[in-house]
Write a sequence for this structure.
């Protein structure tokens, strides 16, 4: 079953021996598909309601650490959420701050360049450490 924030109902997909299971471009075992794993799925819809996954790419397994470096493009300190546009891939990531940002909250602002050490908890990226990077003079 796959949940998508845009759909109220989970999507049931069948994984067959022909389904390609990948992580960082390398084949992985089906055991990598634990509850809470963040995935990207390519599938063929079927009329019988049992859609078949052609390829499942594992993006993040619960408990995995990630380091994000980039620009703050959104910030809601009352909700404890930082939106970061990655300098590595240009994608936008939502990161939950919690207590990790207490020491840098006065330096956090839109357009700040940051390094954020996170842990994926099965639902979201949770900051473990936030560093506001000095900006270089232009």
């Amino acid at each position: 079953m796959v949940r998508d924030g845009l759909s109220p109902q989970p999507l049931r997909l069948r994984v067959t021996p022909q389904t390609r299971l990948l992580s960082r471009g390398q084949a992985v075992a089906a055991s990598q598909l634990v509850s809470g794993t963040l995935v990207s799925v390519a599938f063929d819809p079927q009329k019988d309601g049992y859609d078949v996954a052609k390829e499942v790419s594992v993006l993040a397994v619960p408990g995995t650490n990630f380091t994000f470096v980039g620009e703050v493009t959104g910030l809601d300190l009352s909700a404890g959420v930082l939106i970061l546009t990655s300098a590595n891939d240009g994608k936008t990531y939502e990161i939950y701050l919690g207590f990790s940002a207490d020491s840098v909250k006065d330096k956090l602002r839109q357009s700040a360049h940051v390094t954020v050490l996170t842990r994926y908890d099965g639902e979201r990226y949770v900051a473990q450490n936030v560093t506001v990077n000095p900006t270089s003079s232009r």
Q: What stands out?
A: The chain has no helices and nine strands. The two ends are 49 Å apart (CA to CA). Residues 69 and 115 are 4 Å apart (CA to CA).
